[in-house]
Amino acid sequence: MPTQIKENYLKAIFFLSQKNVEVSITELSNQINVSKPTANNMVNKMEKKGWVLYQKYKPLKLTAKGEKIGALIVRKHRLAEMFLSEVMGFGWEEVHDIAEEMEHLNSEIFFDRMDEILGFPTKDPHGSPIPDKNGKISKSNHINLTSIKEGENIVLCALANSSKELLLFLNKKKITLGTHLQVQQIESFDKSIVVGLQDNSQFVLTFDVCKCLLVKRM
Questions:
Q1: Cβ atoms within 10 A of the Cβ of 60, count?
Q2: CB-based contact 96:126 (threshold 8 Å)
Q3: pLDDT tens digits, one per residue of 175-209
Q4: What is the β-pairing status of strands 202-205 and 153-159?
Q5: Which of 109, 130, 169, 191 could cysteine-pair with 207, CB 3.0–4.6 Å?
């Protein structure tokens, strides 16, 4: 099994790959917040383990073995977030850092029991898909809020960015997964969107916030 540090690298490469990002050493070092030489050194070690394919000046790619390990780390993280949220009552803005610690527990039975208690969820508190026990992950058909037209009714399904700052902002606006919104106006100048809630309240979401919200049409 990989060490905790290697697990963090595998998870980062897996995460970036799922976002359709070409994973360079620079991109990886930024994601993990280490220097490029440090990231390069670790990638070389992971290549020797058969977890990544690495050629200089070309994007990093996970092997089938590395992809499965990365997916199972993500599975543990997202199951932990769901358990913390649904069973222990933590807010969706509180669960990430705790789950970062829990994801390194090397106990399959522990996470299998967690999965069972939760009723085998397919998504985490932020709407991100939870890989199954074989590391398979489903793709969603959600649309970015920036693609929605004026007058359309939508429901919030997931977040493209689950930073604590964004989650606290959404808390203030009383927006959670499943919240119904109507796009009432799109400002031509900065692409900010005026949205309305079911209680007839309305407010403005900046373009940067809208890029983080994944929705489906009603």
A1: 23
A2: no
A3: 999 999 999 999 999 999 999 988 888 989 999 99
A4: unpaired
A5: 191
Instruction: Catalogue the long-range contacts made by 81-88 (C-beta closer than 8 Å, 24 or more residues apart).
Output: 81/124, 81/125, 81/126, 82/118, 82/121, 82/124, 82/125, 82/130, 83/114, 83/117, 83/118, 85/125, 86/118, 86/121, 86/125, 87/117, 87/118
Return all residues near 34 (Cβ < 8 A) that are at least 6 apart.
none
Helix axes 64-86, 108-117, angle to 10 degrees: 50
Closest CA to 212 of 151, 154, 146, 125: 146
Which DSSP string do the residues of 29-59 spell out, in sequence order?
A: HHHHT--HHHHHHHHHHHHHTTSEE--TTS-
Query: From CA 81, how far away is CA 167, in angstroms rounded?
Result: 14
Per-residue 3-state assignment (H helix, E strand, C coil) for 161-190: CCCHHHHHHHHHCCCCCCCEEEEEEECCCC
Q: What CA dihedral angle connects 25, 27, 30 and 31, to 10 degrees?
A: -110
Rounded to whole angstroms, the Cα distance separating 129 from 78 reads: 8
Tokens of 151: 């007058």
Mean pLDDT computed over 88-96: 97
